[in-house]
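A protein record in our archive is deliberately plain, so that people and models can read it alike. The record that follows is passed on verbatim for readers who wish to inspect the format.
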Amino acid sequence: MSHLDPTPKAIPLGKSGILVSPIAWGMWRFAGAGVADGRRLIEAAFEAGVTLFDTADIYGFDGTGGFGDAEVLLGRIFAESPDLRARMVLSTKGGILPPLPYDSSPAYLAQALDASLTRLGVDQVDLYQIHRPDILTHPQEAARALEDAVTTGKVRAVGVSNYTPAQAQALASFLTIPLVSHQPEFSPLHLEPIENGLFDQAMERDMAVLAWSPLGGGRIAVPTDDRSRAVAEALDAKAADTGASRAAVAYSWIMAHPVRAIPIVGTQNPARIAELAQAFTIPWTRQEWYDILVAGRGERLP
Protein backbone atom coordinates (compact mmCIF):
# COMPACT_ATOMS: atom_id res chain seq x y z
CA MET A 1 0.00 0.00 0.00
CA SER A 2 1.33 3.45 -0.92
CA HIS A 3 2.41 5.79 1.83
CA LEU A 4 1.18 9.33 2.42
CA ASP A 5 3.58 12.10 1.46
CA PRO A 6 6.20 12.61 4.19
CA THR A 7 6.12 15.77 6.26
CA PRO A 8 8.59 18.38 4.96
CA LYS A 9 11.31 19.62 7.31
CA ALA A 10 9.94 23.17 6.99
CA ILE A 11 6.51 24.41 5.92
CA PRO A 12 5.07 27.84 5.10
CA LEU A 13 3.23 29.71 7.85
CA GLY A 14 0.31 30.36 5.55
CA LYS A 15 0.87 33.31 3.24
CA SER A 16 3.25 35.05 5.65
CA GLY A 17 6.41 34.22 3.72
CA ILE A 18 7.79 32.68 6.92
CA LEU A 19 8.96 29.07 7.03
CA VAL A 20 8.43 27.13 10.27
CA SER A 21 9.01 23.66 11.65
CA PRO A 22 6.05 21.28 11.21
CA ILE A 23 5.83 20.99 14.99
CA ALA A 24 5.74 23.80 17.57
CA TRP A 25 6.51 24.15 21.25
CA GLY A 26 3.89 25.85 23.40
CA MET A 27 4.40 27.80 26.61
CA TRP A 28 1.06 27.55 28.42
CA ARG A 29 2.80 25.74 31.30
CA PHE A 30 6.10 27.63 30.96
CA ALA A 31 5.62 30.30 33.62
CA GLY A 32 6.71 28.11 36.54
CA ALA A 33 10.22 27.51 35.22
CA GLY A 34 13.20 29.65 36.15
CA VAL A 35 15.44 31.36 33.60
CA ALA A 36 18.04 28.59 33.48
CA ASP A 37 15.47 25.79 33.24
CA GLY A 38 13.45 27.74 30.71
CA ARG A 39 16.49 28.26 28.51
CA ARG A 40 17.25 24.53 28.67
CA LEU A 41 13.72 23.71 27.51
CA ILE A 42 14.01 26.12 24.57
CA GLU A 43 17.40 24.69 23.62
CA ALA A 44 15.93 21.16 23.80
CA ALA A 45 13.16 22.24 21.41
CA PHE A 46 15.71 23.70 18.98
CA GLU A 47 17.70 20.45 19.21
CA ALA A 48 14.54 18.48 18.32
CA GLY A 49 14.02 20.58 15.17
CA VAL A 50 11.46 23.08 16.48
CA THR A 51 11.61 26.67 15.24
CA LEU A 52 8.03 27.82 16.01
CA PHE A 53 7.37 28.87 19.62
CA ASP A 54 3.85 29.71 20.79
CA THR A 55 2.92 31.81 23.82
CA ALA A 56 0.13 34.19 24.89
CA ASP A 57 -0.45 36.97 27.39
CA ILE A 58 -2.92 34.80 29.37
CA TYR A 59 -0.37 32.00 29.86
CA GLY A 60 0.61 31.86 33.50
CA PHE A 61 -2.81 32.97 34.78
CA ASP A 62 -3.95 30.62 37.52
CA GLY A 63 -7.40 31.99 38.26
CA THR A 64 -6.28 34.83 40.49
CA GLY A 65 -2.91 36.05 39.19
CA GLY A 66 -0.01 35.33 36.91
CA PHE A 67 -1.33 37.06 33.78
CA GLY A 68 1.65 37.63 31.49
CA ASP A 69 4.02 35.42 33.48
CA ALA A 70 4.99 33.14 30.56
CA GLU A 71 5.88 36.18 28.42
CA VAL A 72 7.81 37.75 31.31
CA LEU A 73 9.90 34.60 31.75
CA LEU A 74 10.63 34.40 28.04
CA GLY A 75 11.61 38.07 28.08
CA ARG A 76 14.06 37.42 30.92
CA ILE A 77 15.57 34.54 28.92
CA PHE A 78 15.91 36.75 25.83
CA ALA A 79 17.63 39.43 27.95
CA GLU A 80 20.28 36.90 29.00
CA SER A 81 20.48 35.06 25.65
CA PRO A 82 19.46 37.42 22.81
CA ASP A 83 20.55 34.89 20.19
CA LEU A 84 17.59 32.65 21.09
CA ARG A 85 15.08 35.21 19.78
CA ALA A 86 16.89 35.41 16.45
CA ARG A 87 16.68 31.62 16.01
CA MET A 88 12.92 31.27 16.55
CA VAL A 89 9.64 32.17 14.91
CA LEU A 90 7.80 33.76 17.85
CA SER A 91 4.02 33.76 18.14
CA THR A 92 1.88 35.31 20.86
CA LYS A 93 -1.81 35.98 21.35
CA GLY A 94 -4.08 38.52 23.02
CA GLY A 95 -7.74 39.30 23.49
CA ILE A 96 -8.57 37.45 26.73
CA LEU A 97 -9.06 39.49 29.89
CA PRO A 98 -8.92 37.29 32.97
CA PRO A 99 -10.87 35.61 34.29
CA LEU A 100 -12.95 35.33 31.10
CA PRO A 101 -14.18 38.41 29.19
CA TYR A 102 -12.93 38.75 25.62
CA ASP A 103 -12.00 42.06 23.98
CA SER A 104 -10.93 42.40 20.35
CA SER A 105 -11.58 46.13 20.08
CA PRO A 106 -8.79 48.07 18.35
CA ALA A 107 -7.97 49.99 21.53
CA TYR A 108 -7.65 46.89 23.68
CA LEU A 109 -5.72 44.77 21.16
CA ALA A 110 -3.25 47.62 20.57
CA GLN A 111 -2.73 47.89 24.33
CA ALA A 112 -2.43 44.11 24.73
CA LEU A 113 0.12 43.84 21.93
CA ASP A 114 2.25 46.65 23.36
CA ALA A 115 2.13 44.98 26.78
CA SER A 116 3.20 41.65 25.27
CA LEU A 117 6.12 43.27 23.43
CA THR A 118 7.22 44.97 26.66
CA ARG A 119 7.06 41.73 28.66
CA LEU A 120 8.97 39.88 25.93
CA GLY A 121 11.51 42.68 25.56
CA VAL A 122 11.19 42.65 21.74
CA ASP A 123 10.14 45.17 19.11
CA GLN A 124 8.27 42.67 16.93
CA VAL A 125 6.65 39.23 17.04
CA ASP A 126 6.42 37.07 13.95
CA LEU A 127 2.78 36.01 14.45
CA TYR A 128 0.05 37.69 16.50
CA GLN A 129 -3.26 35.93 16.91
CA ILE A 130 -6.58 36.94 18.44
CA HIS A 131 -6.82 34.31 21.17
CA ARG A 132 -10.60 33.87 21.23
CA PRO A 133 -13.35 35.60 19.25
CA ASP A 134 -14.95 38.57 20.96
CA ILE A 135 -18.67 38.39 20.18
CA LEU A 136 -19.10 42.10 20.94
CA THR A 137 -16.50 43.35 18.45
CA HIS A 138 -17.51 43.75 14.81
CA PRO A 139 -15.04 41.85 12.61
CA GLN A 140 -14.28 45.07 10.73
CA GLU A 141 -13.01 46.59 13.99
CA ALA A 142 -10.92 43.52 14.84
CA ALA A 143 -9.51 43.63 11.30
CA ARG A 144 -8.50 47.26 11.82
CA ALA A 145 -6.57 46.27 14.94
CA LEU A 146 -4.69 43.53 13.10
CA GLU A 147 -3.92 45.81 10.14
CA ASP A 148 -2.55 48.44 12.52
CA ALA A 149 -0.32 45.86 14.22
CA VAL A 150 1.30 44.98 10.90
CA THR A 151 1.45 48.57 9.59
CA THR A 152 3.30 49.74 12.70
CA GLY A 153 5.87 46.94 12.26
CA LYS A 154 5.07 45.34 15.61
CA VAL A 155 3.84 42.14 13.95
CA ARG A 156 4.92 40.33 10.78
CA ALA A 157 1.74 38.28 10.28
CA VAL A 158 -1.68 37.81 11.90
CA GLY A 159 -4.01 34.91 12.62
CA VAL A 160 -6.84 33.67 14.81
CA SER A 161 -7.22 31.11 17.57
CA ASN A 162 -10.42 29.20 18.47
CA TYR A 163 -12.36 30.83 15.63
CA THR A 164 -15.03 29.02 13.66
CA PRO A 165 -14.60 28.98 9.88
CA ALA A 166 -17.45 31.50 9.57
CA GLN A 167 -15.83 33.86 12.08
CA ALA A 168 -12.50 33.63 10.26
CA GLN A 169 -14.20 34.25 6.90
CA ALA A 170 -15.97 37.34 8.25
CA LEU A 171 -12.72 38.74 9.68
CA ALA A 172 -10.76 37.97 6.51
CA SER A 173 -13.33 39.80 4.38
CA PHE A 174 -12.35 43.08 6.08
CA LEU A 175 -8.58 42.54 5.85
CA THR A 176 -6.25 43.72 3.08
CA ILE A 177 -3.50 41.49 4.49
CA PRO A 178 -3.61 37.67 4.67
CA LEU A 179 -5.07 35.90 7.68
CA VAL A 180 -2.25 33.39 7.87
CA SER A 181 -3.28 30.98 10.63
CA HIS A 182 -6.00 29.14 12.52
CA GLN A 183 -5.24 27.75 15.98
CA PRO A 184 -7.94 25.19 16.90
CA GLU A 185 -7.93 22.29 19.32
CA PHE A 186 -7.19 19.14 17.33
CA SER A 187 -6.18 15.59 18.19
CA PRO A 188 -7.41 12.05 17.49
CA LEU A 189 -9.83 12.72 20.37
CA HIS A 190 -10.97 16.14 19.12
CA LEU A 191 -11.80 15.94 15.42
CA GLU A 192 -13.98 19.03 15.07
CA PRO A 193 -11.65 20.89 12.64
CA ILE A 194 -12.05 18.01 10.18
CA GLU A 195 -15.82 17.95 10.62
CA ASN A 196 -16.71 21.67 10.77
CA GLY A 197 -14.88 22.77 7.62
CA LEU A 198 -11.96 24.50 9.33
CA PHE A 199 -9.31 22.33 7.68
CA ASP A 200 -11.06 22.77 4.33
CA GLN A 201 -11.08 26.54 4.75
CA ALA A 202 -7.42 26.51 5.74
CA MET A 203 -6.47 24.56 2.62
CA GLU A 204 -8.67 26.74 0.40
CA ARG A 205 -7.23 29.99 1.80
CA ASP A 206 -3.65 28.69 2.32
CA MET A 207 -3.75 29.22 6.09
CA ALA A 208 -1.46 27.43 8.53
CA VAL A 209 -3.16 25.36 11.23
CA LEU A 210 -1.60 25.26 14.71
CA ALA A 211 -3.17 22.41 16.67
CA TRP A 212 -3.40 22.90 20.42
CA SER A 213 -3.85 20.04 22.91
CA PRO A 214 -2.56 17.45 20.39
CA LEU A 215 -2.60 14.73 23.08
CA GLY A 216 -6.25 15.30 23.90
CA GLY A 217 -5.65 17.16 27.12
CA GLY A 218 -3.48 14.31 28.40
CA ARG A 219 -6.08 11.61 27.71
CA ILE A 220 -3.91 10.05 25.00
CA ALA A 221 -0.97 9.78 27.38
CA VAL A 222 -3.20 8.53 30.22
CA PRO A 223 -6.43 7.11 28.75
CA THR A 224 -9.49 7.51 30.95
CA ASP A 225 -12.34 6.07 28.87
CA ASP A 226 -13.07 3.55 26.13
CA ARG A 227 -12.46 5.98 23.27
CA SER A 228 -9.13 7.27 24.60
CA ARG A 229 -8.05 3.69 25.32
CA ALA A 230 -8.93 2.71 21.74
CA VAL A 231 -6.89 5.63 20.37
CA ALA A 232 -3.93 4.79 22.62
CA GLU A 233 -4.06 1.16 21.48
CA ALA A 234 -4.11 2.16 17.81
CA LEU A 235 -1.24 4.59 18.33
CA ASP A 236 0.73 1.96 20.22
CA ALA A 237 0.39 -0.45 17.31
CA LYS A 238 2.04 2.13 15.06
CA ALA A 239 4.61 2.95 17.75
CA ALA A 240 5.61 -0.71 17.96
CA ASP A 241 6.23 -0.76 14.20
CA THR A 242 8.34 2.41 14.19
CA GLY A 243 10.10 2.42 17.55
CA ALA A 244 8.65 5.85 18.30
CA SER A 245 6.78 6.95 21.42
CA ARG A 246 2.98 7.04 21.52
CA ALA A 247 3.11 10.83 21.74
CA ALA A 248 5.40 11.15 18.71
CA VAL A 249 3.04 8.92 16.72
CA ALA A 250 0.10 11.13 17.72
CA TYR A 251 1.97 14.26 16.58
CA SER A 252 2.95 12.56 13.33
CA TRP A 253 -0.68 11.55 12.70
CA ILE A 254 -1.69 15.21 13.01
CA MET A 255 1.13 16.32 10.71
CA ALA A 256 0.21 13.75 8.03
CA HIS A 257 -3.11 15.43 7.16
CA PRO A 258 -2.76 17.43 3.91
CA VAL A 259 -3.54 20.67 5.76
CA ARG A 260 -0.11 20.07 7.40
CA ALA A 261 -1.43 20.94 10.86
CA ILE A 262 1.33 21.90 13.29
CA PRO A 263 0.94 20.24 16.69
CA ILE A 264 1.77 22.58 19.58
CA VAL A 265 3.54 20.48 22.19
CA GLY A 266 3.45 21.73 25.77
CA THR A 267 5.64 19.26 27.61
CA GLN A 268 8.06 20.78 30.13
CA ASN A 269 10.20 17.63 30.19
CA PRO A 270 13.45 17.85 28.14
CA ALA A 271 13.40 14.08 27.46
CA ARG A 272 9.85 14.33 26.10
CA ILE A 273 10.88 17.32 23.98
CA ALA A 274 13.73 15.24 22.53
CA GLU A 275 11.16 12.67 21.37
CA LEU A 276 9.63 15.26 19.04
CA ALA A 277 12.31 14.51 16.46
CA GLN A 278 10.79 11.03 16.04
CA ALA A 279 7.57 12.57 14.67
CA PHE A 280 9.33 13.85 11.53
CA THR A 281 10.21 10.40 10.21
CA ILE A 282 7.11 8.21 10.77
CA PRO A 283 5.55 6.97 7.50
CA TRP A 284 1.78 6.44 7.19
CA THR A 285 -0.41 4.38 4.90
CA ARG A 286 -4.00 5.47 4.36
CA GLN A 287 -5.21 2.40 6.26
CA GLU A 288 -3.03 3.16 9.28
CA TRP A 289 -4.08 6.81 9.36
CA TYR A 290 -7.77 5.96 9.06
CA ASP A 291 -7.43 3.34 11.81
CA ILE A 292 -6.53 6.15 14.22
CA LEU A 293 -9.40 8.28 12.91
CA VAL A 294 -11.91 5.48 13.44
CA ALA A 295 -10.63 4.89 16.97
CA GLY A 296 -11.00 8.61 17.68
CA ARG A 297 -14.51 8.75 16.21
CA GLY A 298 -15.60 5.81 18.33
CA GLU A 299 -17.57 4.42 15.38
CA ARG A 300 -16.90 3.04 11.94
CA LEU A 301 -16.76 5.28 8.90
CA PRO A 302 -19.97 5.42 6.82
User: Anything to note?
Assistant: The chain has one domain: 11-297. The domain at 11-297 is CATH 3.20.20.100 (TIM Barrel). DSSP finds twelve helices and ten strands in the chain. The CA atoms of residues 12 and 279 lie 18 Å apart.
